[in-house]
Amino acid sequence: MRQFLLMLVLSFSSMTQAAVGVFPDSVFQNLDHGLYWFGYGDSWQKAVPGHSNAYYSNSKPTVIYIHGWQNGATQRKNRETFNRQDAGGPNLDLAHAWLTAGYNVGILYWNQFADEAEVKDAEAKIWTASGPRAMRWRNSSGTYSNGPNVSAGDLLFDHYKANLAGYTGNNIRILGHSLGNQMAIVLTKKISDAVSAGSLNSRLLPKRVALLDPFYSNQAKSWLNNRWVGEVSRTYVSELKGKGVIFEAYRTSAVTSTIFVGDDNAGLMNMTAFTELKPWYFSATQQTEKHNAAVWHYLWSFSFNPPLVKGSSDQAASAKTSDSRIATLMNGSKKLVHDQGAYTKEPSDDNFQSVNR
Fold this sequence. Notes:
Layout: H1 2-9, E1 19-20, H2 26-29, E2 34-38, E3 43-46, E4 62-66, H3 96-100, E5 104-109, H4 119-127, E6 137-138, E7 144-145, H5 152-163, E8 172-177, H6 179-196, E9 208-212, H7 229-242, E10 246-251, H8 266-269, E11 273-276, H9 287-301, E12 308-309, H10 323-330, E13 334-340, E14 351-356
Parallel strand pairs: 4-5, 4-8, 8-9, 9-10, 10-11, 11-13, 12-14
Antiparallel strand pairs: 1-3, 2-3, 2-5, 6-7, 13-14
Helix pairs in contact: 4-6, 5-6, 6-7
């Protein structure tokens, strides 16, 4: 029953031509994973090492989104993009403001690996190729096939370093939703380790990581040396903060509640610039919509001035808030709680109370 409630909320392609909107059947029938760059109006082109891309410049600030659990999405031939109307969000191109501000905007897809009926089976693939379902992947007919012998975290790291090898900018931001927040943490740790080893340019270390309604399953995992994923994530985040990476986190739903199979990981939230958003335009039973709101609210918030902390001129956290301010909030003793604007979807009227963690 608990798993059912949670379910309510939660190959190398040769394509080099830009396309708009709907993905072709081939990316669902055949194994396809990796980095896609996006332009206006949900136009996209897969990143292929050594090939130019209409939507990527190696000198621009860059934001990359990583999705989470994708149970049943392959048969529906559905991939997340930057129009999230299907997830309760606005019928808008949420990449528009980022692109206008000069950003590269991308998505790292691992959707066919994340297509499992049991969320913990998808979660394991982030960390290991030797979990309960190894690295099997699903096609659009619903059939599973054996996958590679490396984890999804390693696969996305390989795509990242291969396609950003010539990056000359100094501002990369990673966003991870739900299970994807673990992928964002694992990816950033792999990048950091490669930088420390001298095998990767330090410009590729993300400056900022946003954890969007993050999910961690509870209990120790045999494939993680009998540690909880939340515990290991805390260790990684602590280390990465010491390397200068800025972390922010936004909670919008009850997905992480221990009433289900989750771990609220309060210790990790207290290590970040942590905000409790209240999407009260959805009812208490609409946990799926609340869970998804974290993504589109964050992306959309880049279109507006940063919100304020109630009773002061201090900025609260949002996608538009400066790195330095997010770092200050991360290292402080307070969290932010949604005050005004909780009943409207548009972030422009938001403000927040600052309360003790």
